[in-house]
Structure formats: C-alpha cells, structure tokens
Amino acid sequence: MTELARLLAPLNVALFTLGSDQVSVAELLGFVTGAASVWLTVAARISNFPVGIANSAFFLVLFLSARLYADSGLQVVYIVLGFAGWRQWRHGGQDRTGLRVARTGWRLLAGCVLFAIAATWGLTILLTAAYDIAPFWDALTTALALAAQLLLNLKRIENWAFWIAADLIYIPLYVVKRLDLTAIVYVLFLVLCLAGVRAWRRALPPGGKGRAEAAPAVVTGGSAS
Question: CA 224, CA 219: separation in Å to the nearest integer?
C-alpha cells in the first residue's frame, strides 16, 4: 500500500449499504458538505467556497476509489476554481469590493454555451479513448458543470440553469454507476438549485441587469460570511 493510499484508507471505509452502494466515509462526508455548499450558495454566502472545496476533496477520494478518473479530474478543477471564485466574490466588484448578484450578458452566455458544446465534443473523444463507461454523458455533465462554475464565480444568476441541466443528467448517471447515495445528493442539489433561482432573483438589483455592483448581495438575513 502506498503512503497516499494509507492516508486515504480511513475515508474509504464502508459505513453502511444503500441499495448496491457500499457507502464510504468519503461519500457520506461528500453528501454533508455538498448539501451545505449548495445551501450556502443559495444564500449567496461566500463561505460556500471553502465548504465546496472540502466537498470536492471528499468526492475526489470517492471517485478515485471507484476508478472514475474523469469525475476525479473534474474535482481537481473544482478545487482550483473554488479558490478562484472565493477571491472573485471577495474582491471582484468595483474598486475590489465584493460582487453582487447580476444577470449574464448575452455575449458571455453565448460563450458559455459554445464552450459547453466544444468541451462536450472534445471530452467525448478523450473519454471514449479512455474506455469511460458513459463518455458522452460524462463529457456533457463535465462541460455543463464547468460553465456553471464559471458563472457562479462571477455571481451570475444563470449559473443555476447550467447546474440544473447537469443535475438532471447526473442523477441517473450515478445510479448506473452504483453510487446511490451520491445520486440522492444530486436530487437534493436539484431541489436546492430551484430554490437558488428564486432566491437570487430576489437579490437582483433594480432592473435585474448590468454588472455586479460594489457591495455583496445578501439573499437571507445577515451579511455574507
């Protein structure tokens, strides 16, 4: 056993069985941190980023143990983007102040759609060569999730549309991959995404258009943490 495998072994211990899924410590912690991260995002709280980074780390362990290398690689990208988004929300507004919730301009939105199409095409070829069990669907969800994360980092409300589209595919995909608890997590994510759309609409500035303004938006009571 390598040193890394020895360090990660406690996270791969099976706690209980759910359907055909042997739920490990990493998967359970992924469930908890994932739900917390999305809830914090719905509330437009900057603390969604550190919690989301922890969530990606737990899922990285889970997917590596399941030999889902495309999903594992995506978690590494999420960790990097999580740190970038954390900084952007804190200093990306006018005069390096916090961002506000805003709508996406059509050029950026069109760019995200084109990116998703191109990334799906390229990743499908790559994952097919790597004998992925569902190359097109893995590629599509990866592309949608990356576009969603980009818009989330910019605090644009349209990020929810990309997350919802990805979740609708992730749910049956993880059932097929026998990660039942993870599939349930994504059902919860889907519900929270729908709540996020409603909450962020209320947080839009008058007119609901334009770039993020200087002060950070607050969707629920209290300041963003």
Answer: 9
* DSSP label of 8: H
State the Cα torsion 99-105-109-114 to the nearest 10°. Answer: -120
Render pLDDT for 38-52 as a digit per residue (tens, 0 to 9): 899 999 899 999 999
Report the distance separating Cα 122 and Cα 21, nearest Å. 31
Q: How far apart are CA 59 and CA 31, in angstroms?
A: 9
Of the candidates 149, 152, 147, 156, the one whose C-alpha atom is nearest the C-alpha of residue 213 is 156
Q: Is the dihedral of CA 65, 69, 70, 76 positive or negative?
A: positive
Task: Assess whether pLDDT exceeds 80 at residue 15.
Answer: no
Confidence of residue 167 (pLDDT cuts 50, 70, 90): very high
Question: DSSP character for 23?
Answer: E
Q: Residue 65 — pLDDT band, cuts 50, 70, 90?
A: confident
Find the distance separating the first CA and the last CA of the chain, reported in whole Å: 41
Q: How far apart are CA 40 and CA 189, in angstroms?
A: 12
Quick one: average pLDDT of 204-210? 64
Cα distance between residue 161 and residue 145, in whole Å:
10
| Residues comprising the chain, all counted | 225
